Amino acid sequence: MRKVSGAAGRAVGTALGLGLFPVAPATAASLAAVAVYYLLPVGGGSPVFLGLIAGSLVVGPWACGSLIRPDDSDPKGAVWDEVAGMWLTCLFLPKTLPWLAVAFLVFRVLDVLKPWPIRRLERLPGGWGIMADDVAAGLVGAALLNVVYRVGW
């Protein structure tokens, strides 16, 4: 049973292997998350998409935590946090290429720069710390972009 659980954690935590990309695995996972969202037959506020996000948030700490080693508390291969954060950024936005491109850029900038207080969330233990900063970046990105979208800038 342990091997199945380990394999499942690795598969989800690496976003089906995207975390193994030799260059910019977090960017690859974020791009794949945008592509999956774009290809979904539902919009950003639909119950299906909200359920997908909820599921990603439930399994994320476990999956990312399963990749932690004693010598590496935030492995680069753990990219499920980028998937969840990217999907959060897309919440309630139009499914158009310009909006999704901006969502991708905003999320990546927030994820890389980790403005206060996002960076502090990395201190949480295990998979929670891996997930929390990206979830916060996704929520901040969604808030910013939805204000821009609703105000019409």
Fold and architecture overview:
This protein has 153 residues and is mainly α. The protein has one domain. It is built from 6 helices and no strands. Helix 2 packs antiparallel against helix 5 and helix 4 runs parallel beside helix 6. The longest helix is centred in the C-terminal third of the chain and has 26 residues.
Q: How are the elements arranged and paired?
A:
Layout: H1 2-13, H2 25-39, H3 47-65, H4 80-89, H5 97-113, H6 126-151
Helix pairs in contact: 1-3, 2-4, 2-5, 3-4, 3-6, 4-5, 4-6, 5-6
Low-confidence stretches: none
Helicity level = 55-70%
- Total domain count: 1
The structural class is mainly alpha
Number of helices: 6
- The helix-strand sequence is HHHHHH
* Distance linking N and C termini: 53 Å
Morphology: globular
Main attributes of the structure:
153 residues, mainly alpha
